[in-house]
């Protein structure tokens, strides 16, 4: 009997369970009852729903052994009971180590042992320790993710049960360093985010062939590269799929390197989805001839909304260089067409000598003409993609007087399309004024002036200009820290360091907020060539403290982080304001922006930060 009948009665009332035979209550549960009040309710609900006590107790034992007594046993009540290979699961979770950070996988696998016939046996038969710990985690995660509906779950389980041995055989042939990636690719393409464990007969074999090609040196050990290739992999044409699987290692590697940034890869994937649907052969030709141009063009095409993409591709398909092969035209016709269309980022494919001769109206010998056209024809995929990129940039520019040949401008135009919410309107207004020559639009805005009026302690000239700190840093040479005053460079604060404030990032609107709000600044550390090494967001709080946010990228070396702290201390002194040390919440006002992701001030008081930060003083100059 329970040690506390009061606790049992309380749980019965709270659980609101239907009646069940009291003899099914197992006294062994009392060993867990004291660990969590919620567990008693979970146990009672499970018994009332018809689950066996042994099945329920196995779940509690798993959570207790894993030190997860605060976790609930159910996400939702399992539909049935079944055998649970507890020893196997505990060994798996021990093998995962730090990879296991929540109860999602243990609870999900436990539930599925009850619901799916043969699932426990599949888990027990899997040689988990022959995989890398990362691959084991991803495989366990993939096996824990099934449809919520009983019909969908049963169908998916049938496919997984059939494919699981094939996946294990594949992993035997893949280096441990790339097994994680192989599991991710298979589950991404065939699983719930892809074909949902269904699809045409050829999909499985084609997927496994491609995965085996991409999962080993010299390819990356992780990443969502398959997302970019998925439109080709799912293409109905056998010729398209065959060319993808047979693509040269060099072209695939160069394409992967161009897609190395996760958020930007999302844009490339969106662009590839649209482009492959209409011009799959062009994509395959470009993969071999000019993968970097393909990545840049797909990233641009992934920026506009679907309707705009369709219109741009329709216009592209009408271009004479897309309708026909221009290198089959008479030389005079080709020369005239190149003069007409090789503008605004579209480069002539002709060798320099031939191009200059044709531009000057000089004749070439037949042999020279044949050679020039032969060399130029190899550039046709690049030429066509540049035409498409020009059309996308013209759409993004709209009526703005912007030079789309400038990398900063292209980035800003993409941000203006991708930023969501109220900050999009503010950013587009800022860019209108910026490209009209009003670079101080934000500073002179009435809302900005009103903010300074509410914060008389903040000297505008000091806050807007900031100090400049220069120092020799071993490994980097001369490093300069200075506030960024150009709005287009401010917008790149996340893209430079690969953070969620970057282009297509989860909180890209926050980069727009920094450009829009006069109480927020971005501090860049640049090397002698002007390349960004790291950055930091600075803000003035509502109670007039200087708030330094964390330095990005997170991997920034201690020597550079020390430089940022020296700057922050000097800047706070110049402003005459206290420096927030991250131990207290600091409210930061929205001035012109409508949203901003505040992830807390930089806590530079930790032992690691103190060791890195307190270095010999260096002169700080004010421009």
Task: Give the topology, please.
Layout: H1 5-15, H2 30-33, H3 37-48, H4 53-65, H5 86-96, H6 104-115, H7 119-125, H8 133-143, H9 150-172, H10 176-190, H11 201-214, H12 225-233, H13 238-245, H14 249-258, H15 262-289, H16 291-301, H17 306-317, H18 320-323, H19 331-341, H20 352-359, H21 366-377, H22 380-397, H23 407-418, H24 422-435, H25 441-444, H26 446-454, H27 460-465, E1 468-473, E2 477-483, H28 487-490, H29 508-516, E3 520-526, E4 532-540, E5 546-552, H30 558-575, H31 607-613, E6 620-621
Antiparallel strand pairs: 1-2, 1-6, 2-3, 3-4, 4-5
Helix pairs in contact: 1-3, 3-4, 4-6, 8-10, 10-11, 11-13, 12-15, 14-16, 15-16, 15-17, 15-22, 16-22, 17-22, 23-24, 24-29, 30-31
Give a quick summary of the entry:
Helices cover 56% and strands 6% of the residues. The chain contains 31 helices and 6 strands.
Protein model, in words:
The chain has a six-stranded antiparallel beta sheet, sandwiched between helices. Strand 4 (532-540) and strand 5 (546-552) form a beta hairpin. Residues 607-623 have low confidence and may be disordered. By secondary structure, it is α+β, with helices and mostly antiparallel strands. It is 56% helix and 6% strand. It has helices at residues 5-15, 30-33, 37-48, 53-65, 86-96, 104-115, 119-125, 133-143, 150-172, 176-190, 201-214, 225-233, 238-245, 249-258, 262-289, 291-301, 306-317, 320-323, 331-341, 352-359, 366-377, 380-397, 407-418, 422-435, 441-444, 446-454, 460-465, 487-490, 508-516, 558-575, 607-613, and strands at residues 468-473, 477-483, 520-526, 532-540, 546-552, 620-621. The protein is flat and about 100 Å long.
